[in-house]
Design goal:
Layout (H helix, E strand, L loop, with lengths): L2 H4 L9 H16 L17 H15 L5 H5 L3 H19 L7 H16 L17 H15 L5 H5 L4 H12 L6 H8 L1
Helix pairs in contact: 2-3, 2-5, 6-7, 6-9
InterPro entries: ACP-like_sf, PKS_PP-bd, PP-bd_ACP
Organism: Streptomyces finlayi
GO cellular component, one term: cytoplasm
């Protein structure tokens, strides 16, 4: 299979072998070499800054993912294949439709996490995270768990500004619904 065929979108079913085949084809084309192994170093085989930039662009065109030029340049061929494949998997996960999350789902996640982090399993809507033993380290853990559980990345400062269960639930519901406003923005608007 020639380098041009490796870049075509046909037959790509998301396997690491597809990425490997593509990368070997592009490396061969860019470097003018066919003696490549998993341990080949792009720069030791004749690559330079312009060629690695072209490689990044070709990866983006072929797979629709952005890989870091810096990260890619530090890796051998086998590691580049793994990096591109992992980027594709992350991209596919983000693009997959997320099941609808209700306010009740959010409240249940928060109550479970408050119970685990604070030993306070049944907080009321007005319960304050910090009055029940929470601190900045625990709120950081809570933010990470929310991201993992609900797929919502939010700044720790927003959670610090929303200490009650009701405020945290409202903040998360707004973010999930697509309202890209932070708590600090909401407070400024109400002043």
């Amino acid at each position: 299979m020639g380098p041009g065929a490796a870049g075509s979108g046909e037959g790509d079913d998301g396997r690491p072998g597809d990425v490997r085949e593509f990368m070997i084809g592009v490396w061969s084309e860019l470097l003018g070499r066919s003696d490549l192994t998993e341990h080949s170093d792009f720069f030791a085989r004749g690559g330079d800054a312009l060629l690695i930039t072209r490689l990044v662009r070709r990866i983006a065109e072929r797979f629709g993912v952005a890989v870091s030029l810096r990260e890619l340049s530090r890796r051998n061929l086998g590691d580049q294949v793994a990096l591109v494949h992992a980027s594709r998997l992350r991209s596919a996960r983000r693009a997959a439709p997320r099941p609808a999350v209700t306010v009740g789902d959010i409240r249940r996640v928060l109550m479970r996490e408050w119970g685990d982090l604070l030993g306070f399993p049944d907080p009321s809507e007005g319960a304050d995270f910090f009055e029940h033993g929470g601190d900045s380290l625990l709120i950081t853990r809570l933010v990470r768990r929310i991201d993992r559980e609900l797929g919502v990345a939010l700044p720790v400062r927003d959670m610090l500004a929303a200490p009650t269960l009701a405020e945290q639930t409202s903040l998360l519901a707004g973010l999930i619904a697509g309202a890209d406003r932070s708590v600090s923005t909401l407070h400024r608007q109400s002043d």
